[in-house]
Design a protein that fits this description.
Helices cover 60% and strands 8% of the residues. The chain has 254 residues and is mainly α. A three-stranded antiparallel beta sheet has the order 1-2-3.
Length: 254
């Protein structure tokens, strides 16, 4: 019995050290030191974790994810307004939707090494949960909320600025419409339960300083449209826009 108790103490000590290393390592990457490490621990706890024996009392990150989503949207909008002071709401909204979308947040979460740190139920982990877009993007939003609760808005602002500002400053405004139209068409095809639209370069004409590219996009149902522009991205945008116009409003069941 005494040996079992000693073993339990050693296990608890190792777990505590491991948890401390997690907080320390992630804090270094975030550039912020948590005063309440429990907030970060909670931010990294997936709702499935409590399903495993002994974990039922653990708080998960769902509420933090909800808060972090709002904080992130606000702080990214703040950076955009500072960098693009003369742009209209539509332009800014298109960029923000791309930056705070689950796909991009997943990319950032992987860059921070969040995947191996998230606490998951064994079943969720076996199902590849550490690589799931929903798991990773939610965890990043929860971490931002945890930072806000631990250190206030300035602390959260520092992390969001470090994650997004360089990318925003490097953004070419001419690419914004291209990203949006292609995303809209992709979302449309997914909503229809189909595969992804396919883009094919048909031609590239004119001198190097004044090229005109033409793309054809094919919707999974076989519908096609063409578009041209001075860059490949703009030509794809034009093709996507033309195809969306051909498809018309999406019909939804009553």
């Amino acid at each position: 019995m005494a040996r079992d108790k000693t073993s339990s103490r050693i296990h608890a000590s190792r777990a505590s050290a491991s948890s401390s290393d997690v907080v320390s390592g992630l804090s270094d990457r975030l550039g912020y030191e948590f005063r309440n490490s429990g907030l970060l621990r909670r931010a990294l706890t997936h709702p499935s974790f409590k399903n495993d024996p002994g974990n039922s009392a653990e708080e998960d990150n769902q509420t933090l994810e909800f808060l972090g989503d709002s904080i992130l949207g606000f702080l990214v909008a703040e950076i955009l307004c500072r960098h693009f002071p003369d742009r209209d709401e539509g332009f800014l909204s298109k960029i923000r939707s791309q930056l705070v979308g689950a796909k991009h947040l997943t990319h950032l979460a992987r860059g921070l090494g969040l995947g191996p740190l998230i606490r998951l139920a064994r079943g969720e982990e076996m199902a590849g949960g550490r690589e799931k877009t929903s798991v990773l993007s939610d965890a990043l939003e929860a971490v931002i909320a945890a930072t806000y609760l631990d250190g206030g808005l300035d602390a959260a602002r520092g992390i969001v600025t470090a994650l997004f500002e360089d990318e925003i400053f490097a953004l070419n405004p001419q690419d914004v419409e291209s990203l949006d139209e292609k995303s809209t068409l992709q979302e449309r095809s997914q909503a229809d339960g189909l595969g992804l639209p396919q883009y094919q370069l048909l031609s590239a004409e004119g001198p190097d300083h004044a090229r005109t590219f033409t793309y054809e996009v094919t919707y999974p149902d076989g519908t096609t449209a063409r578009g041209s522009g001075p860059s490949k991205k703009q030509a794809q945008q034009a093709a996507a826009r033309a195809l969306l116009a051909m498809l018309g409003p999406r019909r939804t069941s009553a």
